[in-house]
Amino acid sequence: MLETLPVVHSHPDPRHKPAIAQKHELRFWLNGKPVVEKNPDPNESLIHFVRRKGYTGTKLGCSEGCGCGSCTVVVESFDYATQKVVTNSVNSCLAPACSVDGKHVITIEGLGNAKKPHIVQTVIADAHGSQCGFCTPGIAMSLYAAMKKNPHADEHAIEDAFDGGI
Ligand code: FES
């Protein structure tokens, strides 16, 4: 069922920033929309940034990047060596917001919602894969990244993708 993983949406080409970056500006794509932040705080973490922008589906749990995975988002970037888009799951509690300059960040809101869930959300719900629900957005993002990397990932590979989660 996951072999035909749909693209979240027609995400922008990560080779192109929303516009020519100016000094002291952070520019990236967030759920397919351009974001421009003037004078970004170099100490602000990505989770605080996305939550401040209203994407509160990404949760802050342990805040240590090594325990709960509830803060997981997906970051897409362009690998010039292979000329391909690279998809990674990232613990947004550890990543500085400035580290995603020129990249595409996908949060759980960009994946899908109750009315129009992404297939990975449907699979998690159908398999009763949620516990209290707090970390479920992170689980969904980890699964999405794993399946984007390898649409034919076996059970073991998917389990590995959940290593950073509770
Ligand atoms: S909040 Fe727990 S890993 Fe980031």
TrEMBL record:
Cofactor dependency: FAD; [2Fe-2S] cluster; Mo-molybdopterin
UniProt keyword terms in alphabetical order: 2Fe-2S, Iron, Iron-sulfur, Metal-binding, NAD, Oxidoreductase
Gene3D superfamilies the record matches: 3.10.20.30, [2Fe-2S]-binding domain
UniProt cross-references to InterPro entries, sorted A to Z: 2Fe-2S-bd (IPR002888), 2Fe-2S-bd_dom_sf (IPR036884), 2Fe-2S_ferredoxin-like_sf (IPR036010), 2Fe-2S_ferredoxin-type (IPR001041), Ald_Oxase/xanthine_DH-like (IPR016208), Beta-grasp_dom_sf (IPR012675)
Organism superkingdom: Eukaryota
Pfam families referenced in this protein's UniProt entry, alphabetically: Fer2, Fer2_2
Span of domain 2Fe-2S ferredoxin-type: 24-111
GO terms assigned for molecular function: 2 iron, 2 sulfur cluster binding; iron ion binding; oxidoreductase activity
Sections of the chain in a coiled coil: none
Protein family: Belongs to the xanthine dehydrogenase family.
Listed PANTHER family: XANTHINE DEHYDROGENASE
Name under which the protein is recorded: 2Fe-2S ferredoxin-type domain-containing protein
